[in-house]
Amino acid sequence: xATSSTSGIISPLSVTNMTxxxxxxxxxxxxxxxxxxxxxxxxxxxxxxxxxTLIKAILGLQPALTGxxxxxxxxYKTQRKLVGYVPxxxxxxxxxxTNALDVVMMGRYGHLGLxxxxxxxxxxxxxxxxxxxxxxxxxxxxxxxxxxxxxQRVFLARALAQDATLYFMDEPFAGVDAATxxxxxxxxxxxxxxxxxxxxxxxxLATVEQYFDSVMLINGELIAFGPTGTTFTERRLQEAYGGxxxxxxxxxxxxxxxxxxxxx
Amino acid sequence: xxxxxxMLTGALVASCCGILGCFLILRRMALVGDAISHSVLPGIVIxxxxxxxxxxxxxxxxxxxxxxxxxxxxxxxxxxxxxxxxSIGVVFTSLFAVGVLLVSLNAKHVDLDxxxxxxxxxxxxxxxxxxxxxxxxxxxxxxxxxxxxFIIVAIIALFYKQFKLCAFDPxxxxxxxxxxxxxxxxxxxxxxxxxxxxxxxxxxxxxxGLLIVPPATAYLLTDRLGMMIxxxxxxxxISSVAxxxxxxxxxxxxxxxxxxxxxxxxxxxxxxSPTHGLVxxxxxxxxxxxxxxx
Amino acid sequence: MLNLFTDPNLQWILIGSMLLGLSTGxxxxxxxxxxxxxxxxxxxHAALPGICIAFMLSGVKSVGYFMIGAxxxxxxxxxxxxxxxxxxxxKPDAAMGIVLSVFFGLGIVLLTQIQHSxxxxxxxLDKFLFGQAASMTSNDVYTMMGVAILLIVACALLFKxxxxxxxxSGYARGLGFSVATLEQLLLWLVTIAVVVGIQAVGVVLVAAxxxxxxxxxxxxxxxxxxxxxxxxxxxxxxxxxxxxxSAGTASLPTGxxxxxxxxxxxxxxxxxxxxxxxxxxxxxRYTAKREWAAEGKGKAGAASxxxxxxxxx
Lengths: 264, 294, 313
Description:
The complex is a heterotrimer.
Chain A: E1 13-21, E2 26-35, E3 40-44, H1 51-58, E4 66-71, E5 74-75, E6 83-86, H2 100-106, H3 109-112, H4 120-132, H5 148-161, E7 166-170, H6 178-193, E8 197-201, H7 208-211, E9 214-219, E10 221-227, H8 228-231, H9 234-241, E11 246-247, E12 258-260
Parallel strand pairs in A: 3-8, 3-9, 6-7, 7-8
Antiparallel strand pairs in A: 1-2, 1-4, 4-5, 9-10, 11-12
Helix pairs in contact in A: 2-4, 2-5, 4-5, 5-6
Chain B: H1 2-26, H2 30-51, H3 56-79, H4 84-105, H5 114-119, E1 129-132, E2 135-139, H6 140-158, H7 160-168, H8 170-175, H9 180-202, H10 204-219, H11 225-250, H12 254-272, H13 278-293
Antiparallel strand pairs in B: 1-2
Helix pairs in contact in B: 1-2, 1-6, 1-9, 1-10, 1-11, 2-3, 2-4, 2-9, 2-10, 3-4, 3-9, 6-9, 9-10, 10-11, 10-12, 11-12
Chain C: H1 3-6, H2 8-33, H3 39-58, H4 63-87, H5 92-116, H6 123-130, H7 138-157, H8 159-167, H9 169-174, H10 179-201, H11 206-218, H12 224-248, H13 254-272, H14 278-295, H15 301-312
């Protein structure tokens, strides 16, 4: 798996031997993979499987026991500008005194350097990104007065403003309304059209096949990683979820129809 | 003239604290400010014992270092699993105890008055003048606080976007390469500086009042961080001026009155803020309800 | 040192400090578990205006009146904190800071009023704030003893109720307990402990008597009963050792020494606590890393052998 770049194109993200332990037992064990450029990749696994932890370790937000991350062939630290990150919505205080446009403009801070302040150009980019997620009308709205879905869209707009080529999204679909879900998926496809690579931590097994090109199944360790059609199978899922899934009887094992998962 | 210097000192203290307090309450570290303002005591005493003088520079230096130590210890205990408020409590009480012990051990050499540390003596500000070439150019406290305010304003203005992002979303800040820990310690260093420059005038505990109350009031009045800082400054200055006159009228502690005025202003904002006030929101609910009824 | 056991005055102080440490340690356990460690600090500062008003109304320095004043002020303060957090977006830590500093500011204003007017002999009033364990008289010790016994008996009687509201107040409400009353009662007990503690160690340090023994005890056990007793023992030990060191020197005050003793016990607990301690954690992390390296791509082996190691250790 480590040398799959047969075409000679450098992979947008290659992770080798990533192991993360909070205390005693590693929550992420020896994960290695390499993603293809321009794909939408779903990271799937049961609660506590280490999905968010894996992303945080890749981004250096969580110290890893072992492991290396290369972004376009170079260490992550030198390539930060190429990487966009959408944290879980609960990770920030939405009572913070700021408005939607301002949050989106924060996405530009990495490009501004040490001392430059955001100006008219950043404002224009911010408005453009808000428009892309259908939030242009809410630019001046205090962020606590936005609905959960709208807050999520502001976060996405902020990631767009980062103008990255490789994106990490931590459960963007968690607890959002149908309109937001649709807006997010349109956006993901738009990013894909631009040749960008997106890794999404995802919980809803029913929509996996519809949304993602590739699937990464994780339960502490990497269970399987590959094209959705061949990877998202009942056997693999049972392996990842440890038999805690219910399937409709009579389905062929290659094309499972999920009825209920143990996800929230 | 004395009234002018006292009000100016109070306004400078309120300004230093008001700016930094905004970041403290947004990062939910209001009580870290409390901890720093108490644990500054041993820093001042040690600086005094080493330097042998009440020179403000040494005191400032000693206090800034002990401020770092405080924050570092709180962080360390938190990382090893102690609840955050418990670790704040353990650290500042221990350091304060060390301070009290050092004072009593060296009672003969230290003319630091514990009462003064706790309550401050802003009324005496004008007696301690700085003179250059025989000319008196103003009270020492005013100069000290002026320089502190200048440093605070300069650093916050230069790195405004970093401080803002670190307060709002430290994970993103770290992901785009902002040294979050460094800015955390810079902020704490500034809080220590502000505390020690202020404590002689208003006392260790009332510094906490000016660190927290005006920013909290501003937080209820606006939805923009920049505006919050400006309002916090204005509220702080109003508190110190109004506090001075109240104290003069009541013949009471000036610093105490300043904090009380700030408290009254907070209560007003809490009840009547146009956007977040308790009464305002109730009234708005009622009007919507009656409109719905028709 | 010998005079500690012969000098009756020192004996009083020793008994007083131990009882104080014991009762604050016990009551502090519940404050800590309710994540209200700093409530002690807030109550201590908020007590000042209550004490001043009690003095202005009564005109005498009496611990009984002071306690009533402090309890009333403490109740208003805690109501204020919950009021602010419930009805605005201000977070609990800031609300605590606001109440603490504004009450203390008010207290100082009242204190200067008292000093500037003719309330007679008020000289002891501000000393009340810094604590004077060394000048405790047998009367003070009797008060302390009474209070300590009251606190211990109350905690023993209401142990199961306090346990429930500390762990899961929503569930307690579901079981039909009057959670609000119990919370208020616990708060009263904390206030009483704080007011007595203020006399011994002063406003700033009294918070330590409530927090430090409780946090230390948490490192040694996972059972509430054991933790409460241990916390009481740590508190009593701190008081005793503090008094003992203080008695051996000429000028060192008892309060800070007791607090620092408690801190030393705390640091020891954080380092060497059997499961949560830093050393234990470091050893676990080290073995995890080594096993990981040794077993290389090992799968379940790491987890199971680590478990064995824990059992044998």
